[in-house]
Here is the input.
Amino acid sequence: MKKADIETFFSRLQAADPEPKGELDYTNPYTLLVAVVLSAQATDVGVNKATGPLFKVADNPHKMLALGEAKVRDYIKTIGLFNNKAKNVIKLSQQLIDDHDGEVPQDRDALQKLAGVGRKTANVVLNIAWGVPTIAVDTHIYRLGNRTGLAPGKNVDHVERKLEKVVPDAYKRHAHHWLILHGRYVCKARKPDCPVCIVSDVCRFKGKTLAG
Here is the structure.
């Protein structure tokens, strides 16, 4: 995609949704971190249903440890991979207390040392909690990067590096939200809704769907 088209692409997404928000519910950086860890291979809607009751009783690492792994598991058993995720939530809570005085670190490397936290999760937390202009590449963004010609790449790391190069600085803070929401509701995996897409004229996708 040409530089001018990329500017058009993001300026239109910004005009349509100036302050995009993630769809995971949270109350502080800790609950955000836990919600993002739980969201791997799960829907945000499904995660929110489980974390609503969980976060009412455990909204910091001390309370989560006091709850214990078995009870955490009960709260999140409707989420995929809940056994492993419950282990990770307890372990990362202990790590936060041992290594960070119970606070979520504002550093990608420190975040990635926590149980269940990969680069994507770290990027999401940095972006949403502290406004760091990171781009967390999930399946939606990976698909969009390749389909639109915005940032084609063989894997998520490749697409992330490309996006960091091509997304204008003015749009970097919200870029990953715009792309995720666009991928979730318009540029869908099976059948993109090209007739209603506000950036279809700058998109390089050859198999655009028609109205009707």
